[in-house]
Amino acid sequence: MKKRMVLVGLFLVCGTVRAAVTNGVVQETVVVSATRVEMPIASVGSSITVIDKAQLAERQSPSVVQALSQVPGVDVVQNGGAAGQASVFIRGVKSEQTLVMVDGVPMNNPVDAGRGADVAQIPVENIERIELLRGAQSTLYGADAMGGVVNIITKKGQGPLQGEITAEAGSFNTFNEKAEFRGGASNYNYSAGVSRQDSAGISSADARNGNTEKDGYGRTEASARLGWTPVEEFEANGLVRWNQAHYGYDGFVDGVLKDTDDSADSDNLLLYGEGKAKLLDGLWRPRIGGSWVSQNRDDTSSSSQSSFDSLLQKLEWQNDFYLGKANIVTAGFEYQQESAESTYDAMGYMDRFDRVTARHKSVYAQDIVITGPLTTTVGGRSDSYDTFGTENTWRVAPSYDVTETGTRFKGSYGTGFKAPSLFQLYSIYGSKDLQPEKSQGWDAGVEQEVMGDALTVGATYFGNEFEDMIDYDFVTSRYGNVSRAESRGVETFVTAKPVKDLSVRASYTYTDTQDKTTDSQLLRRPRNKMSLDAFYSFTARVRGGVGFVYVGERQDEDFSTYTTTTLPSYTLVNLYASYDLYKNVTLFGRLENLFDEQYEQVIGYGTPGRAGYAGVKMTF
C-alpha cells in the first residue's frame, strides 16, 4: 500500500518521491528512461538496472566501460586497452542496435559504419547515475534503441556550494585527475566538472604475439549543467559536455593485428537546452528541447591519413498529461537531422565519402494506467525517413506489484527497427535500396523480496528475433538486408544485506544466440556470464570490497584465415578499499585482474594484466 501511495504522489507532484526518499520515509528508486517520465522502479514493466553514484564510487569506475561490465544481460567488448573502441551487447543484440544517451541526448555516431556509440569515449566525470534499459525500446526512442538504451544522467546541483577533487595514479604510468562542484537555490542550480586522464597504456595488439609497442592515451573532459526556475511553473535547463583525446592503436597487416604505430585524435561536443512547464495546475506538462552533437576524429598511420566528421541535431516536443491519480498520457514529436563525411588517403589512393544529410520526423504516444497493484504501459510510434519511408512500432509493458508479499511480476513485448546508416546507404559499398532492420522482443520476470530488503532475488526470461539485418554482402560487394538472427536467455540476480555493514550483488546470464543465415552462434556473445561484488564496512572509516566477473567461451572471426574460432573463457577478480583519513579526505585504491589472467575480448587485441591504482579524494 505504501508504494502505491508513493506512485499516486509522484503522479500529482513529481518532487514528492524524491523528498520522501531524502527524508527516509520510503526507500524507492525513481527512474526516467523506461517511460520518459519519472516512475518508481517497482511500477516499471521493462527490465532496467540503475548504477548510482554510490556504486560508481565503490567500484572506483574510471570509465563507463567498467561501470557496465557487471550488469545482467550486458557484455562490453573492448578493442585493446582503456582507449580502445568499446561495444555494448545487450541480450546478444548487435552493439549498433543499442542507443547510448547523455541526459537523454543521443550519442550514436552518424559517421560510424553501423551508427553505433563508443562508450569508451564517455567519462564518468559528473555522473549521477546510469540507467540501462534492456529490450526493444524503439516505441519511445526510435531506430537505435532496437536492443536497449543506456542513459547516462549527470549530477544536478542543489543547496550550498559543494564539490570534490580527486587524483589517482597507478599501473602503466596512469594518472587521473578530476574536479567537480555543484550547488543551487530555490530558483537556480548548477554543476560542473573537469577531468584529465593520461596513460602509457598497453599494446593494442596482443603482446603475447610479439607486439611490444605501447599505445598510450591522453584525454580531457569538461562539462557543465545549469538550471533556472524563475517561477514554480517553469524550468529551463542547459547542458554542455566536451572531450578531446589523443590515443594510439594498432592495425591489421595481412589480416593479423600488429604494432603499426597508428594514432587518432578525437574532438566531441554536446550542447543541449530545454524548457519545461506545469500548466493547468500541473495536469499538462510540456517540454521543448534541442540538442547539437558534433563528433570528429582524425587517424594517422605511416601510410595513410583519414578523417571522420559527423553532426547530429535534434528538436523534440514532449507533452505529459496527468489525468487523475492513476493515468499518465505522454505524446510527442521529434525532428532529427544528421550529416557525415569521411576521407581516406593512402599513398595517393583517395576514398572520399562526401558529406550527406538525412532527416526524419517522429510522433509517439504512451499511456500509463494503474489499476490497483497493476501498472500497464502501452505505446506506439511512427518514424518517417526521407531515405526509406515510414516505420511503425509498438510496445506493452505490465508490472504487477504485490506489496504484502514483496513480490513483483513484470513483462514486456515490443517491436523495434534500426534505420540504415549514412555509410550503408551512400558509401561506395552502400545501397540506396536498403530497408530498416526489424525486430520483435519480449521478456517476463519475477522479483521477490525476502525479509524486507535483506534479500531480493529475481529472474527474467527474454527473447529477440531479427530480420532484414544489414550486413556486407560479399556476392554484390555492397551492404544488403541479407541476415536473420535470434537470441534467447535468462537473467538472474541476487542482492543481499546479510548483516548491517555487508552488501552483496550477484548475477548470472545465459544467452543463446543464432545467426539464422549461417546457423552459427553470433560473434563475441558468451553463452554464460556471472558477476559478483561484495562490500563491507570494517569500521566507520574503512570500507573494502571484491568484484568477480566470469565470461564464458565466445566465437570470433580470425581475419588472417577468415575462419571462426573459439575464444577461451576467463575470470577477473578485482579488490577495492577506501579509508576516510579525515571528514573530507578519503584515500582509496584498487587491484584489477588480481590473478593476472591472460585473456582476449577480441581476437588479436591485448588486455591489461594485473594492475594497481591508488588515489585521494577531497570533498568540500
How would you characterize the overall build of this protein?
It is a single chain. The protein is mainly β. It is 6% helix and 61% strand. The protein is built from 6 helices and 33 strands. The strands form 5 sheets. It has a 22-stranded antiparallel β-barrel. A 5-stranded mixed β-sheet has the order 3-8-9-6-7. It has a two-stranded antiparallel ribbon with strand order 1-2. A hairpin with a 2-residue loop joins β14 and β15 (256-277). The radius of gyration is 24 Å and the shape is globular.
Task: Describe the structure concisely.
With 620 residues, this protein is mainly beta. It contains six helices and 33 strands. The chain has a 22-stranded antiparallel beta barrel.
Distance between the termini: 40 Å
Gyration radius from CA atoms, angstroms:
24 Å
Structural class: mainly beta
Poorly predicted sequence stretches spanning 5 or more consecutive residues: 1-26
Kindly state the percentage of residues in helix.
under 10%
Q: Features of this protein?
A:
620 residues, mainly beta, five-stranded mixed sheet, 6% helix, disordered N terminus
